[in-house]
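Handout, section 3.2

Students often ask what a structure token actually looks like in practice. Rather than define it abstractly, here is a full record for LysE family translocator. The first block is the sequence as you would receive it.
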Amino acid sequence: MFGIHDLTLFIISGLLLNIMPGPDSLLIMTRSATQGWRAGSAATLGICAGTMVHILAAALGLSAVLSTSAAAFTVVKWIGAAYIVYMGIGMLRAKLRDEAPQLPAVQPLAWRKIFFQGFLTNVLNPKVALFFLAFVPQFISADSSSKPLAFIVLGTIFNFNGMLYCHGLALFTAFASTRLKIKPLVSLWLNRTMGGLFLALGARLALSEQH
């Protein structure tokens, strides 16, 4: 249908690719560990919304600009890297809040803000756009009558499977955090450690080259 072939292989490959660690999974784990699974789910929905933007842009040919224009790629890359670094700095500056008579807890972030964090982290990463341009067409026949539609169908399947995995990751992280009874101070330093990793990821994105 739509010239799509090897759908089972596509789904399996997509799931394996989703398991690979990156800024998206780190954000989900951080929010789930410090604020519970609902916060992780908010990040997941934002990430999936950003992924859908990449899918539609690639299907319409807009992402091809990033693969052919060094200037466009560099602009998006630096904006994305700056935002990831900004998030990392925010995590490093996390503080404890007093909640008498309970122990202090890490200052929570609104779910709406977490959603947009996930969205911007994903949509401002040009590597995601290039990934879809390189990966998805391999499963579309050259004689497909509607390549854009086939691209959107495959991209949506990839995004849906990724959403299921990320929600599972959020639930698992939140459950593990609860079972281990992570103390507020440990949660604070976990947040800061993740902030340091985001700084490293932002630097890595900034130094990445167009392929």
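Discussion prompt for tutorial groups: Confidence is low (pLDDT under 50) at residues 98-104. How would you have guessed this from the sequence alone?
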